[in-house]
Amino acid sequence: MHYVCLHRDTGVPEKIVLEQLLTYGDSLAGDERSLSNQKDPNTCLFYVAPRTGTISPWSSKATSIAHVCGLEKTVKRVERGMVISVTIDKPVNTGSIPFADLLHDRMTQTIGVGPPDLSVMFAEHAPAPAQAVPMHTEGADPRHVLEEANRTLGLALDRSEIDYLVDAYSLQGPLARNPFDVELFMFAQVNSEHCRHKQFNATWTIDGVKKPYSLFDMIRNTHKKNSKYVISAYSDNAAVLQGENAGFWAPNHSTGEWTQIKEVVHYLAKVETHNHPTAVSPYPGAATGSGGEIRDEGAVGRGSRPKAGLAGFSVSDLLIPGHEQPWELDIGRPAHIASSLDIMLEAPIGSAAFNNEFGRPCTTGYFRTLSTKVPIGGGKSEIRGYHKPIMIAGGVVRPQTRKSSSLELTLLCLEDQRCSSVSVVVRRQASLPVKVRWILTSLVYNEEMRRFRGELKRLSMHVLQWASIIQSSSFMMSALVVCLTHCLNWCMMLG
User: Fold this and answer.
1) Are 436 and 474 in contact (CB under 8 A)?
2) Counting Cβ atoms within 10 Å, is residue 166 exposed (0-12), middle (13-18) or buried (19+)?
3) Which CATH architecture fits 236-399?
4) CA distance 46 to 1
5) Domain spanning 142-196, CATH architecture
6) Residue pLDDT, tens place only, 118-165
7) Domain 2-121 belongs to what architecture?
8) CA pair distance 56, 51, nearest whole angstrom
């Protein structure tokens, strides 16, 4: 089921293009109307749609494709949902949805017995104003107010963080005012385990003995003990290992030909986990894990070129229906976490799909299951295993090491008999410090050129597009910013 939000009514050619874009996969024997006309009281229709207030990843891609296909002025947004026909052995209560968790992903979707409200699905709201949290209202307990905000806003602040905020915003503190909700949100994110690694960097005292290493120190200790062949570690988003002399094919922009370049080719390696999102929503959780890993690798140094990826999964026993094994333990699971079987059916495909869509093969990985009962003394035992699943994404990349010795770029050119061309040349000389030389040639204009100020403005916007594409070094970005400034100045001079 597709839902399309339009800027205006579609003409016949546009409607044909849109129908072609939205026709894919296997065709069904019936549609929603034929399903809804069924009189079987034991058959129910359930409508699954993207979660209210979100834009699905599918929507972002589909809308972009529609715009590329000439529908930019017609199609505002495209969304996709599902209509599920369920036949059960006895009628259900009107409005109830049995086994809803099996029919939709609670993290990213909503489910209902009727079609979604399109005015809500495609609603656009102005940003809500910031709200002050009334810590200092007469008769109010500042700590109680913050604890209530912590619950209602879902900030997950611990006691020490609430103590810090109470002191910071107290009338005797450095801020001495009521906090805003956006400030509390920002504080909660910045001080989360994901950002600050409070537990990972915490000191440990076990049986009264303070241990010399944090969890992160234990990991870093390997590099500290043996750093041979390691060029960079724990100083960027991925590690760089010593490579060997090798050759690779690269384009020569001055001749338009591909040539073999000889240089030392280092290895860049990276792994990261995306455990909780994969546990809650396996397919998108694992896909985002691989996406974050690819992003981090590409951001190392002057930029890097991805080569191959991996995806690994550790879960508790699968308990495949009809194929349970004697050593497997069924210890249940929290309602908000997917089963181990669902994770292994969906998460590997999510990781591989992101790799494929990015253009990098996911060539290897691993898969482990473990749930075991371990005696802990005193006749007691405990369950150990991967009850909280582990999703690992990793990759091998070639980091960029070459420096270009020169660069020439013509940014804009006006072709008209009343105006000669305007060229901007940027050069970098290896023998000198980084320096940008501007050569503005043949800038001739008269009063007729006022008509071209719109062209200049549009061309200046192309500079921003160049800036987002060409990011080889900081001097290049600086040059483009300066060039944009010149373009805008010319627009102002031209009226």
Assistant:
1) no
2) middle
3) 2-Layer Sandwich (3.30)
4) 12
5) Orthogonal Bundle (1.10)
6) 999 999 888 889 999 999 998 899 999 999 999 999 999 999 999 999
7) 2-Layer Sandwich (3.30)
8) 8
